[in-house]
Write a structure and sequence with these properties.
Elements: H1 3-19, H2 29-36, H3 41-69, H4 71-90, H5 95-112, H6 115-126, H7 133-161, H8 165-170, H9 175-182, H10 195-211, H11 213-242, H12 250-266, H13 268-274, H14 277-297, H15 307-327, H16 335-364, H17 366-391, H18 394-404
Helix pairs in contact: 1-6, 1-7, 1-9, 3-4, 3-5, 3-10, 3-16, 4-5, 4-6, 4-9, 6-16, 7-12, 7-15, 10-16, 11-14, 11-15, 11-16, 11-17, 12-15, 14-15, 14-17, 16-17
């Protein structure tokens, strides 16, 4: 590929990432489904867990499809599903509408997941610019978080007028990544689609991920943090209600947490250059597990602001883990597939976690469930860290850091 095409793709990628998520929905995600679709919190957990099962099923075939027909085409299809999903959420009046919207989202998520990162990394790999990945990815994801932060400030006032108003505001911006996708250049030659080719690519990508120890470890680590973070996110709104935070301030809290996420994503490459990998890994485990535990033990309004700790990890994690993953994937032919295997296994853990947390919430209540979740994250996190230390001797860690930066 020409250098000019790669530069243009980097700009387009940043635009795609910037607008690829709903900008005005996060602060009222759960409460809007409860009020507009008339669903209880356990019902929402069950729905999310069921939809994540669908993601587990779709992720690997979607990744293989991207490796065969091209990441660009796959991203276009993904955005069509995302737009359709948003229409159902905007107009939802019953649980069925929420279910359909979530199922459409699952298709879009599975198609986009892996294809977007594979497109960027393949561009950089074509010109030997892999070292720039973490910086570009961090800036792209950080930019989206910064935009969501400022949009969140308007959510509370809009939701106070009409709960659907923030949802309507999300829709126009989703057309931007759809349009941007048409102008991206594919960095690798794609093949003609066939069932046989699809199955071979799925098999090769899955076996590659399973057999390589470095990939296995990062898959397990991601599954732990992604699963815990997903559960925690769905407790934000109910926790705010328990500790008596007014709806008007939801947007302010989401503004703060997204500012934190933006900063940690934007400067992820600098954080990695100042700290070694072991410190980054331990920091992420502590910043997820400990605040969850504290929020459960001390149900106070001030404790709600501990969600900013998880968002430090949210911002930092994607540049860190995606850079780690892509660094250890040596084949362009199965890059998106391997990334999708990681996502599929993470989603599987999330499914199990959501089901378990939903049952705990019914029997023990939200606060006790948060305590158990926090303890579990800390124990499993330290187990993962010990495995990392055995897999990566200190001398090897330093060489990997130098290569990544």
């Amino acid at each position: 590929m020409k250098t000019s095409h790669i530069r243009r793709n980097i700009v387009l990628y940043k635009l795609f990432i910037l607008f690829s998520e709903p900008l005005f929905w996060g602060p009222i995600l759960i409460i809007s489904i409860q009020q507009l679709a008339h669903m209880t919190l356990p019902d929402i957990y069950f729905m999310e867990a069921t939809v994540m099962v669908l993601c587990v099923i779709l992720n690997i075939p979607a990744g293989a499809l991207a490796d065969i027909i091209g990441r660009k085409k796959t991203l276009i299809i993904a955005m069509v599903f995302h737009i359709a999903s948003r229409v159902f959420f905007i107009t939802m009046t019953s649980p069925l509408d929420a279910w359909i919207g979530n199922i459409l989202w699952a298709f879009g998520y599975s198609l986009q997941n892996g294809a977007d990162v594979a497109l960027l990394y393949s561009n950089l790999n074509a010109r030997g610019l892999q070292k720039k990945f973490s910086r570009i990815e961090g800036c792209a994801v950080g930019g989206r978080m910064l935009l969501i932060a400022f949009c969140s400030l308007a959510v509370g006032p809009m939701a106070s007028i009409n709960m659907r108003l923030p949802l309507y505001c999300c829709l126009p911006f989703l057309f931007i990544p759809l349009i941007v996708s048409f102008y991206m250049k594919e960095p690798v030659v794609t093949k003609k689609f066939s069932i046989g080719e699809q199955l071979r690519t799925m098999k090769d990508g899955t076996l590659y991920a399973i057999r390589k120890p470095e990939i296995r470890w990062i898959i397990g680590f991601c599954a732990l943090l992604v699963g815990a973070s997903k559960i925690w996110f769905f407790t934000y709104n109910p926790y705010f209600v328990i500790v008596g935070i007014d709806l008007r301030y939801y947007g302010v809290i989401f503004f703060l947490l997204n500012i934190v996420a933006w900063a940690s994503s934007h400067w992820a490459h600098r954080i990695q250059s100042r700290l070694n990998e072991r410190s980054c890994i331990v920091g992420m485990i502590v910043c997820v597990g400990l605040p969850i535990l504290i929020m459960g033990v001390f149900p106070l309004a001030a404790m709600a602001y501990l969600v900013t700790s998880q968002n430090m990890v949210r911002g930092f994690m994607r540049p860190f883990t995606e850079g780690f993953m892509n660094h250890h994937i040596n084949s362009e032919k199965i890059r998106a597939t391997v990334l999708s295997v990681r996502s599929s296994l993470s989603d599987m853990v999330t499914v199990i976690s959501l089901f378990c947390f939903g049952m705990m919430d019914k029997r023990l209540g939200l606060l006790n469930s948060l305590i158990i979740l926090g303890i579990t994250v800390l124990i499993l996190g330290m187990t993962s860290y010990r495995r990392y230390c055995k897999l990566f001797p200190q001398s090897r860690i330093q060489s990997l850091i130098r290569e990544a930066l």
